[in-house]
């Protein structure tokens, strides 16, 4: 019998709400109150998120973030900064002890990324999982040279034609894996490089040129406009196929939403969390 997971499509939400709901679902799953979850969401306003270990002032140009009216939030996961603009974001919440989940972070990426792989293929894109081959490439993953997430693919992230098409990050808390990631539907590279700190404008231009060869969006690959609804359908089916599960639509209860609001207020909407050193 096929295992049933919950499915939530939150649509466009605030940065603090998005991170609070991910953590709330992790908490609820850790207590055995809900089964594993696949969640899709978007960002209102477009938001710059930084990884758990990054220093806000060093990683990004906060003046530019404010000037452009962007949101800002620190993720509970590691990884580098991401500009969430025209993007479908996914999260997967599942127990570390789940029989289909490997113990290592890297191999868990591989299993979960199968859902993304099928999603891209459902859109007619010839995606594959990245596996850095050489010693230099592997060393770069351990010591990234840039604060920008789409600068290079990591283990088992999705690439199409050698360019990174999705970026993911993972944390493990309370016996639960939370993996979430960005699937760019469209990509504005000028906007992307404008919110990061560079030692000179020449370096900023150099990063833009580099990203043109290393990162790509769904619309950039297809050469046409794609709706968020079509992307969500392709990736929902992708996770169903890739993980071999059934997905059941789910709406959090009022009691569960109270936990989200508490996490949002006390943590993700707080400067103490977002700008901590």
TrEMBL record:
* Keyword NADP applies: no
The UniProt record's further free-text remark is: In the reaction, the free carboxyl group of octanoic acid is attached via an amide linkage to the epsilon-amino group of a specific lysine residue of lipoyl domains of lipoate-dependent enzymes. The reaction proceeds via an octanoyl-thioester enzyme intermediate.
Keywords, A to Z?
A: Acyltransferase, Ligase, Transferase
The protein in question is named: Octanoyltransferase LipM
Name the gene: lipM
Q: Where is this site: Lowers pKa of active site Cys?
A: 164
GO MF terms on file?
Answer: ligase activity; lipoyl(octanoyl) transferase activity
Free-text function comment from the UniProt entry: Catalyzes the transfer of endogenously produced octanoic acid from octanoyl-acyl-carrier-protein onto the lipoyl domain of GcvH, an intermediate carrier during protein lipoylation.
According to its UniProt record, what is one Pfam family this protein matches? LplA-B_cat
UniProt lists the family membership as follows: Belongs to the octanoyltransferase LipM family.
Concerning InterPro entries, the annotation shows: aa-tRNA-synth_II/BPL/LPL, BPL_LPL_catalytic, LipM, Octanoyltrans_LipM/LipL
Pathway(s) of this molecule: Protein modification; protein lipoylation via endogenous pathway; protein N(6)-(lipoyl)lysine from octanoyl-[acyl-carrier-protein]
Organism source for this protein? Edaphobacillus lindanitolerans
Q: Which residues form the active site?
A: 149
| Residue span, BPL/LPL catalytic domain | 32-247
UniProt xrefs under PROSITE patterns? BPL_LPL_CATALYTIC
Oligomer and partners: Monomer.
Catalytic EC class: transferase
